[in-house]
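Sequence in, structure out. Go.
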Amino acid sequence: MRCFARDGFANTSMADIIKEAGSSAGSVYSHFAGKAELLRYAASDALDELVASVSDELPSERTPGSVVSHLLHVSGDPAHAQLLLQIWAETSRDPELEDISRHSLHELHELVRTALLPWCEQRAHRKAPRPDAGALADAVVAAIQGFLVTVSIDRKADVDALAAHLVAVFQRL
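Output:
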C-alpha cells in the first residue's frame, strides 16, 4: 500500500513491493499471482479499514457537520488519501477492483445515511421539508471524495482549512 500510494500503481513493480515488504519473491508470489491481485487485496483492506473506522467511531451527536468532521478525521491523512485516489483511478481498468470499490462506497453511504436518519427525522416537525437522509448521504460521501482528491492533487493545500470549510458548510444545514 505504501508503494502504491507513493509511486502509483503503474510505477510500482513487484520488485518494489517485495523490497518494501522486506520479503522474498517466493513469499509474495505464494500469496498473490501478480500486481493486480495484490492491488485488489490492498484496496479491499484499505476500504474495509475505512468503513470499519467510520462505523466504530461515529460521534454520539450525529449532525451533518459532526459526521463530515468524523469522516475527515478518519480519512483525511494525505497518504491515505493518495492511496484511495490510486485505487479509484484503477477501477476503470479492473472490473474486480471496481466491484470492491463500489461495494465499499455503498457500505459507507449506508453508514452515513443511517447515522443521519435521526437528525433528518427530527426536522420533520419544522416548517421546512424534512431532509432526505439518502440524498444527504450522497452529498456527504461525494464531498469527502472531493476532499480526498483535492488533498491528493494539491499537496500544498491547507488541509485543515479545507476541512474546516467543508465542515462549516454541513454545519449550516
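Check: DSSP finds nine helices and no strands in the chain. The radius of gyration is 18 Å.
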